[in-house]
Design brief:
The complex is a heterodimer of chains A (256) and B (396). Chain A is of the alpha/beta class and 256 residues long. Chain A has one domain: Aldolase class I (TIM Barrel). Helices cover 44% and strands 14% of the residues of chain A. Chain A is built from 11 helices and 8 strands. Chain B has 2 domains: 156 residues, Rossmann fold, CATH 3.40.50; 214 residues, Rossmann fold, CATH 3.40.50.1100. Chain B is built from 16 helices and 14 strands. In chain B, the strands form 3 sheets. A 6-stranded mixed beta sheet of chain B has the order 3-4-14-9-10-13, with helices on both faces. A 4-stranded antiparallel beta sheet of chain B has the order 1-2-12-11. The longest helix of chain B has 17 residues. Chain B starts with 6 loop residues before the first strand and ends in a 7-residue tail after the last helix. Classes of the chains: A alpha/beta (256), B alpha/beta (396). At the A-B interface, helix 2, helix 4 and strand 5 of A face strand 2, helix 1, helix 8 and strand 11 of B.
Chain lengths: 256, 396
Amino acid sequence: MSNIKKAFENGKAFIAFITCGDPDLETTAAAVCAAVENGADLIELGIPFSDPTAEGPVIQGANFRALKGGITTDQIFAFVKELRRDVKVPMVFMTYANVVFSYGAEHFISTCRDIGIDGLILPDLPFEEKEEFLPLCRKYGVDLVSLIAPTSENRISMIAKEAEGFLYIVSSLGVTGTRSEIKIDLASILQVVRQNTDIPCAIGFGISTPEQARNMANISDGVIVGSAIVKLLEKHGREAPKYVGAYVKSMKDAMR
Amino acid sequence: MTNPKGRFGIYGGQYIPETLMNAVIELEEAYNHYKNDPEFNRELAELFNEYAGRPSRLYFAEKMTRDLGGAKIYLKREDLNHTGAHKINNVLGQALLAKKMGKTRLIAETGAGQHGVATATAAALMGMECVVFMGEEDTIRQALNVYRMRLLGAKVIPVKTGTATLKDAVSEAMREWTSRISDTHYCLGSVMGPHPFPTIVRDFQAVISKEIKEQILEKEGRLPDAVIACVGGGSNAIGSFYNFIQDEGVRLIGCEAAGRGIDTFETAATVSTGRVGIFHGMKSYFCQNKDGQIAPVYSISAGLDYPGIGPEHAYLHDIGRAEYVPVTDDEAVCAFEYLAKTEGIIPAIESAHAVAHGMKLAPTMGKDQIIVITISGRGDKDCAAIARYRGEDIHE
């Protein structure tokens, strides 16, 4: 069991997603610190992948910008090790199965523990394939975070029963990206989840406004915001951290 | 493994977002139900024979055989199918299955455009909506096929992300499927992606080797010594190999697109230059860098321009049952021209990769030996591109 539960100990959690190396690692570090200072309870760090099949155009763009800058997995590990000195909230990696597999799963996951990464989110690793990395994640105390989608239906209880760290509830069909309206009946999904597990549940995909954050926090333990933050990095580049800080504050305030 | 289904050795699996899991489970259940259903098989056989023009011919290439001076060469003429390629076999099967499942909309990826044309054709025939994702680069290389798809009533969406080729078209089709599942079937075009696609597509393409076997036994009274096919994702190759896998005496040879050569970065030869990875729903071989970033691949052939290979091929490679050889752009173009001049058959540039290897292999074999080369598609679509390769400024 990692430190992830600490993120949910002070009311509803705000989880900020930032792609490592977009536009450079110095900016990533400053954006992470700005998010934490303004109330982010957990940081989701994206390791870029060339073909991010679960992402919409905004996060795809961040992946391509970071890779164009020449970022490597080793650079990100060194960066997080350094960042850990300043950042005390839990941090997880969000990436794709091939990034972990290709690095050597054991090497990757043991390094996660060594540098203070608490969990791993892999959108292309469903329940049926989690044995690929789960034994190593348990060995090194890194939580493998499970996702539940609007289409999960009869699979919800099976996934929830074995979930670790926190449960990532996908709010909408399709890929990541901001949406004006979230139409899925999340309350009934959450109800089934609650019958099967006590671990915290955070809702992600499509959330960008304080009002959405408040509504989602009312039915769950926290919200995950990615594309809205990445858009600020896309727009403001190296100047983005102060905008990220102000944005996180507005979202966190709405959830209190 | 929690779920060993759909594995070929260590390869295959279902590495896809949770959002798609119930869709692939539903597909697997429907397929398992219908694959042994007499009515489904009767309808499919009728579509194959009456609509697509099966069985396709196994043609003895006498002039080519004489010219090369070695093994007897037979050509399996998938280019003579309706829509001009083997792709129609899989598409008719999947479209019929989707219809039985109550789906009203087909989406597909396409590289050279052959699979997109086949899907648009099946959608038109069965009264279904159709959307095809095609790399923007490929919409330029294969402009005629884009027009054909539109003529057939499909919507073609050029994909601009990444390298704007086949792998990006697959990614975009997967993204589209996660946003619209209830009425939509993803008609995947090759023996790749998450289980059950590699199995379903193989089964629908296995008609190729079933016919080759019957036809060669009738013509020669024995099995061939080698079967050669080109490999991108590998659907015509697995279709050509499948019914020979148990016949140890038949060499199975897949021809990968080496582009400008396997010692360059401009290649798409996955087995020769890739390593094991996880991408597009499957564990298999992929062209990738040391960090697992999928490599931009290159081939003159838009249909072979893919950084991975189907999981069953990865397995057949590992156990040594099939061989995979690289064939360069240059060799393929020479074979394209050779077959046109020698036999009066213009093969697809994809299929020309298999012809090129056959041309190398035949002279090393005895006159009593037999090679079957699958001509997976016709080459009309490639004429302008090959002319440009030879320095003639022709546009469609």
